[in-house]
Design brief:
Strand content: 35-45%
InterPro entries: NDR1-like
Order of helices and strands: HHHEEEEEEHEEEEEE
GO biological process, one term: defense response to other organism
Protein name: Late embryogenesis abundant (LEA) hydroxyproline-rich glycoprotein family
Keywords: Membrane, Transmembrane, Transmembrane helix
Structural class: alpha+beta
Main location: membrane
Helix content: 10-25%
Length: 291
């Protein structure tokens, strides 16, 4: 600890030739401890100045200065902007106006009428139960048979009779646009003819007689063999009938249906010296009916 200035002026020096001591440097306070490790001194510290042999009296006082600021770039902005708020007013599609009440009632009435009509038709059909008519071939005869071997042509007349029976006890049957045909099995038709419309009452039986005329129709070799044989030869004939059938019960009628009558494999036997006539000999032959 250094003596104060008052005590040094009161006591004389020990040696008369010694120079008076230099006045002490003015008292200075110690700087506050530096809490910043990055601070630096304004001048060289005292130890470094004494080692270099420079003037030791005066030296720079170490004042802490803050380190020069480092230029750091701001961190990247990783936050995405918030979406805009939803609109406060929502626009909805306008609902279509409901159909008029009268139109809905009309549609409901039409649908109801169709349903009632269908139900009534189904009930009537269950009660009446329409059944297909039955057909049988009662007779078949060929006359004026003329075969030409030169051009394999045939001319003849076919006379046939069908027995039609209506098995329905409450329904009558009407036949429209009947069409009859005849052919040698299984070749194409030799002759086709339209017949007059006819009808049958409930439980009625009717005979349908018709004639088909063949003029210069082609006949294949297999069918022509029986024509060349003469008396005793036989050939299979197909007689068919097609018509539109409608069942009727008072004011109630069924829809139109196509009816097909097929009398196939009817064997006719030629007779006479010149084989100009042939006939079907046997009981009535049952025909197939598709309705």
């Amino acid at each position: 600890m250094q003596p104060s200035s008052s005590s040094s002026s009161a006591h004389p020096p020990d040696h008369p030739n010694s120079k008076p001591p230099a006045p002490p440097a003015p008292a200075m306070g110690y700087p506050a401890p530096n809490g910043n490790p990055s601070a630096y001194f304004a001048a060289a510290p005292p130890a470094a100045a004494a080692a270099n042999g420079s003037a030791p009296a005066t030296f720079g006082v170490a004042y802490p200065y803050p380190a020069p600021p480092h230029h750091h770039h701001p961190p990247p902005h990783h936050h995405y902007p918030y979406p805009p708020p939803p609109p406060t007013h929502h626009h909805y599609a306008a609902h279509p106006p409901p159909p008029p009440t009268c139109l809905r009632r009309l549609l409901a009435a039409v649908v109801g009428a169709f349903l009632l009509l269908g139900a009534a038709t189904f009930i009537v059909w269950l009660l009446l139960r329409p059944r297909a008519p039955a057909f049988s071939l009662t007779s078949l005869a060929l006359s004026r048979v003329a075969y030409s071997p030169a051009n394999s042509s045939l001319s003849a007349s076919f006379d046939a009779a069908l027995l039609a029976a209506n098995p329905n006890a409450k329904l009558s049957v009407a036949y429209f646009s009947p069409l009859a045909s005849v052919s040698f099995a299984p070749s194409s038709p030799l002759a086709v003819a339209s017949l007059a419309p006819f009808g049958q009452g409930p439980g009625n039986t009717t005979t349908i007689a018709f004639r088909l005329v063949v003029e210069d129709a082609y006949v294949g070799p297999d069918d022509a063999a029986a024509l060349k044989t003469g008396a005793g030869g036989a050939v299979d004939v197909e007689v068919r009938l097609m018509a539109v059938a409608v069942f009727d019960r008072g004011g109630w009628r069924t829809r139109r249906r196509v009816m097909r009558v097929m009398c196939d494999g009817v064997k006719v036997v030629f007779r006479g010296k010149n084989s100009t006539e042939a006939a079907f000999d046997g009981p009535p032959r049952r025909c197939d009916v598709v309705l």
